[in-house]
Design goal:
This protein has 100 residues and is an alpha+beta fold. The chain contains 6 helices and 3 strands, in the order αααβααββα. The protein has one domain: Winged helix-like DNA-binding domain superfamily/Winged helix DNA-binding domain (Arc Repressor Mutant, subunit A, Orthogonal Bundle). The two termini are 20 Å apart.
Length: 100
């Protein structure tokens, strides 16, 4: 996970929107049948629904965010839930502050 990969992942408005929503999932998503919104993350189906994209499109966005270490996926039953990786985001912010 390089910082360059993370910055490239952040270069997309939809991915930035997803990260913003995941910062306060209770304010942006309805309750889920499986998994706690904060503890387990938000189901990809709910994210796709809110973003107005197909499941394959969302999967690609989440793959990029996951590979960059910005979100953490968790499988529950047949669903994938996503949470922000706050430690990685903080390290990235610190790295950016040090480089600029």
């Amino acid at each position: 996970m390089t910082n360059a990969l993370a910055f490239k992942a952040l270069g997309n408005d939809r991915r930035l929107q997803i990260l913003a929503w995941l910062k306060d999932p209770r304010a942006h998503f309805r309750e889920q049948v499986d998994g706690d919104l904060e503890e387990d993350g938000v189901c990809g189906v709910l994210i796709a629904e809110k973003l107005g994209v197909s499941q394959p499109t969302l999967s690609e966005h989440m793959r990029v965010l996951t590979q960059a270490g910005l979100v953490t996926p968790k499988r529950i039953k047949q669903w994938t839930f996503y949470r922000r990786n706050e430690a990685r985001l903080a390290a990235l912010t610190a790295a950016l502050a040090g480089e600029v």
